[in-house]
Amino acid sequence: MLYEDMVLGRNFEDMCAQMYYRGKMFGFVHLYNGQEAVATGVIKALDKNDYVCSTYRDHVHALSKGVPSKYIMAELFGKETGCSKGRGGSMHIFSAEYNFLGGFAFIAEGIPVATGAAFQSVYRKQVLLSKENLQVTAAFFGDGTTNNGQFFECLNMAVLWKLPILFIVENNQWAIGMAHHRSTSKPEIHKKAEAFGMPAVEVDGMDVLAVKQVTEKAVDRARSGEGPTLIEALTYRFRGHSLADPDELRASEEKEAWISRDPIVRLSNYIIENKIDSQKSLDAIQDKVKQNVSEAIDFALSSAEPSVEDLKNIYLLIRLIN
Ligand SMILES: Cc1ncc(C[n+]2csc(CCOP(=O)(O)OP(=O)(O)O)c2C)c(N)n1
Ligand SMILES: [Mg+2]
Fold it and tell me: Ligand 2: distance of its center to the CA of 16 in Å?
């Protein structure tokens, strides 16, 4: 299941790159290649009723949360059948049905939203006396984002109110073309949690099993009302910041060193070496995923554009707001 989820993330993103360069997708598109072990390891440790909040690099988080690939692909094509009705695009994947809170273009914008989701879960239980388990919220964001004020404000509130939230920092070492160690006072982000009295852990973000293990512990803590945990996953993006980025700032030696630690290859080696499953089964998973992504493309291509009437309403709304 973990292998399939990571392969789906990788294949989906590779297909997005193809479609973008063929002119089927517009606007900024940020791909997740290389970071799959983080989405899979964290989200597959959550329950269906738990929440996930993402950034503009959001397709794979949504896939791992269970949003069907065809609704995400249709969204990227701007079609009416997309999960945000084609109005959001790549940076605004949203699904109420799957408790997927978005997709945010501004960095750190999702962190307070995730904190709010965690707060409502506590409120339901303590004030509305719900018998349901506390829902856990996982908030994903990047290393660059941790230099933003909303990060610190939300850590403070989450500890103060013992909110059931996981702050997942995907430290891919870069914020567009700014190296992490050049832009932050203390590069070990997990140590910043200490100032708020929050438990924090650093984990190898190229190892899905390690990510899942630390997440399970954090989920138990959150679900039992003990409060938040910060997880810093050390990872790397294999492509440029967005598909519009020629990716000329990062040294090729650095890229190659990280690509040699590909989380999907690592898991498949682990599965084979430990005789958990055969190469044939892994190949069958690859075929199944290719079929899934190809059906998502057919669905997106054959779906209708949003109606002009609806687009007029959006235009009027924008005029009223302005
Ligand atoms: C509030 C705000 N300021 C600046 C930007 C421009 N911006 C887009 S991505 C980015 C870098 C974010 O890097 P990081 O948090 O490490 O995430 P990554 O892209 O590496 O996943 C910046 C500064 C923005 N989107 N929002
Ligand atoms: Mg980054």
Answer: 20
* DSSP summary character for residue 306: P
Asked whether 180 lines ligand 1 (CB < 6 A), one says no
The CB of 240 under 6 Å from ligand 1? The reply is no
Q: Give the residue, out of 107, 182, 237, 242, with the most ligand 1 atoms within 8 A of its beta carbon, to mutate for a pocket test.
A: 107
Residue 78 CA to ligand 1 centre (angstroms): 23
Closest CA to 201 of 169, 235, 238, 236: 169
Whether residue 77 has its Cβ less than 6 Å from ligand 1: no
What are the pLDDT digits (tens) for 241-281?
999 999 999 999 999 999 999 999 999 999 999 999 999 99
- C-beta separation of 98 from 144 below 8 A: no
pTM: 0.96
> Rounded to the nearest whole angstrom, what is the distance from the C-alpha of residue 168 to the centroid of ligand 2?
12
* pLDDT 10s digits, 121-160: 999 999 999 999 999 999 999 999 999 999 999 999 999 9
Distance of CA 163 to the CA centre of its chain: 20
Q: Where are the alpha helices (DSSP H) in the chain?
A: 2-21, 36-43, 59-64, 69-76, 110-126, 149-160, 180-183, 208-223, 252-259, 263-273, 279-302, 308-321
